[in-house]
Amino acid sequence: MRARARTLAGEYQLIQVRTQPDAGAVATGRLHLAPPDSLARVGAVGGAARDLVGWLDPTQGDSTWRPGASSRDPKQPGAVLTGDHLRLGQPAVDSPVEQLEITAVSEDGFWGWWQAEPGWEVAIESGTNRIVPDPAGYFCALRARP
């Protein structure tokens, strides 16, 4: 898996489509993934392994679910790929992130499903007080061509 993850380094057009709670909402952005430099590798010692790190520049849609995804700080990257798991955003108790699970890869990119992890927040539907499911859906990341 690690060898395959390294082949995913590059620039992508990321397209995410929600299937819940509001089906059909679309978010897009430019995803950059690269092997971690020595500073990022040192920061990961004793922590989670990082195959690739990078950031997401949102271009369309709701970016409130991944406020730290645009971080280019090598110690706190906005995107971290480990095996088949891509995290967008900064993990914290009060900060939402999105977890993307890669289910297929081709020379043109990769795709799969995603789910938001809202931290401590719970969305409640007004009027009914029903707990709304966390945002989730499917995605594709198309390799940007020069």
Quick description:
The chain has helices at 2-6, 38-44; strands at residues 10-20, 26-34, 52-60, 79-82, 85-88, 97-106, 109-117, 136-143. The protein has one domain: Lipocalin (Beta Barrel). By secondary structure, it is mostly beta strands.
Please give a handful of descriptors for the protein shown.
8 strands; globular; 8% helix; 8-stranded antiparallel β-barrel; 146 residues; mainly beta
Structure commentary:
By secondary structure, this protein is mainly beta. The chain has helices at 2-6, 38-44; strands at 10-20, 26-34, 52-60, 79-82, 85-88, 97-106, 109-117, 136-143. The protein has an eight-stranded antiparallel β-barrel. A hairpin with an 8-residue loop joins strand 5 and strand 6 (97-106). The relative contact order is 0.22.
Percent helix range:
under 10%
State the total count of DSSP E strands: 8
Strand portion, in percent?
Answer: 35-45%
State the shape. globular
**Helix-strand topology string:** HEEHEEEEEE
Predict the CATH topology: Lipocalin
- What number is the mean pLDDT? 83
CATH class: Mainly Beta
CATH architecture: Beta Barrel
Compute the separation of the termini in Å.
Answer: 27 Å
Overall tally of structural domains: 1
